[in-house]
Write a structure and sequence with these properties.
single chain; alpha/beta; 7-stranded mixed β-sheet; 13 strands; binds 4'-deoxy-4'-aminopyridoxal-5'-phosphate; transaminase activity; Aspartate/tyrosine/aromatic aminotransferase
């Protein structure tokens, strides 16, 4: 009989290995562009001002930690509606629920699809955030990979993407990054969103939009424009949202799942399934982070300060993108990409060379965090990359 001791070891995540390697490197000029968190000019990931203020307020006013129920904080999900859904905020066919991070929202969304339509295939662009694949497979659904980005040509493989999704059948799922594509930084433009949306409608596909970096691309509304176009056009939409990046509350696990169907009744039934699935997995989402986000969004002054600090974060990303593009014409493509990530067309050997010779740590894929370097390290980063890039 099988025992725990008979388990094979799991293959360790290459990004986690990279973090360990970087941490173990004691060279003082080390640059860690591997891990995907926001960093300021000093290399820190600070708690946002409005978040700190909300935590204080919460500490002072919270008089109970008794259970809230499997929906978590209902006011939190309501307050996110105008931010995420914009003009669709008042659409009562859209229902939302608090989740443990964007990851929890994705898991619920895909598990819900698996209940409704176990034959659905999930079309996932390549490359993508690596966890999309195990979550989908873990829910028992088949993955169909479609080409998304040509790293070496530094452009979206739009024609190939369109050809692939034109091959999807009614009920198949298309997983899209709402903005700030991870790992490439390459977002669809407005025309491309329209084209993709047209195919979704024509072929009767189910869009699942993963929006984990809203506000870190062009702005809160601009970053949700593609999603909102899909909401305009489609009766059924799933949105897996995360506040972990735009509120910088990563470890507090703050997300939301929005479900749209053709009627309020059908959405409520779908939500009933989602709550049952959540109950099996975590029963209720953790409260603190969502309570903090709610406290910010209930207070106009804190909301204004959160937006201002988010603008500062975005400006820093854009400034570094400009700096990298200005420094070398081969990095020009980085200027107009979005969010925290971009990819360098490097071989694994070149990535290794940067690591060993220059103490620069990035993923083997060439993905790097735009914010991984402090302001005074940008020149050294560009020079080292320019020395190896093809
Ligand atoms: N989607 C994408 C594209 C991501 O990059 C991430 C986090 N790296 C998530 C979802 C999950 O975010 P969270 O930490 O809120 O679970």
């Amino acid at each position: 009989s099988a025992r725990l001791a008979d388990l094979d070891a799991v293959r360790s995540d290459s990004l986690l290995k990279l973090i360990a390697l970087a941490n173990a490197d004691s060279r003082p000029n080390k640059i860690d562009v591997g891990v995907g968190v926001y960093r300021d000019g000093q290399g820190n990931t600070p708690v946002m001002r409005a978040v700190k203020a909300a935590e204080k307020k919460l500490w002072e006013t919270q008089d109970s930690k008794s259970y809230l129920g499997s929906k978590g904080d209902i006011a939190y999900a309501d307050l996110l509606r105008p931010i995420v859904l914009g003009e669709h905020s008042g659409d009562e066919r859209i229902v939302g629920v608090q989740t443990p991070g964007g990851c929890g929202a994705l898991r619920l969304a895909i598990q819900l699809i698996a209940r409704a339509n176990p034959a659905a295939r999930v079309f996932v662009g390549m490359p993508t955030w690596p966890n999309h694949v195990p979550i989908t497979v873990g829910c028992g659904l088949e993955i169909v990979e479609y080409p998304y980005y040509d790293r070496d040509a530094r452009r979206i493989r739009f024609d190939e993407m369109m050809a692939a999704i034109e091959g999807a059948s009614a009920g198949d799922v298309i997983l899209l990054h709402g903005c700030c594509h991870n790992p490439t930084g390459a977002d669809l433009d407005a025309d491309q969103w329209r084209e993709v949306t047209r195919v979704i409608v024509e072929r009767d596909l189910l869009p699942l939009v993963d929006i984990a970096y809203q506000g870190l691309g062009r702005g809160l509304d601009e970053d949700a424009a593609g999603l909102r176009g899909i909401l305009d056009a489609c009766d059924e939409v799933l949105v897996a949202q995360s506040c972990d990046k735009n509120f910088s509350v990563y470890r507090d696990r703050v997300g939301c799942l929005f479900i749209k169907t053709a009627s309020r009744e059908a959405s409520d039934i779908a939500m009933g399934h989602v709550l049952q699935i959540a109950r099996e997995m975590w029963s209720m989402p953790p409260d603190h982070g969502a309570a903090v986000v709610r406290t910010v969004l209930q207070d106009p002054a804190l909301t204004a300060d959160w937006r201002a600090e988010l603008d500062e974060m975005r400006d820093r990303i854009l400034r570094i993108r400009d700096k990298l593009a200005d420094a070398d014409p081969r990095l020009e493509y980085i200027r107009n990409q979005m969010g925290m990530f971009s990819m360098l067309p490097l071989t694994p050997e070149q990535v290794l060379q940067l690591r060993e010779r220059d103490a620069i740590y990035m993923a083997d894929s060439g993905r790097f965090n735009i914010l991984g370097m402090a302001d005074d390290a940008i020149d050294r980063f560009v020079a080292a990359v320019a020395g190896v890039i093809g």
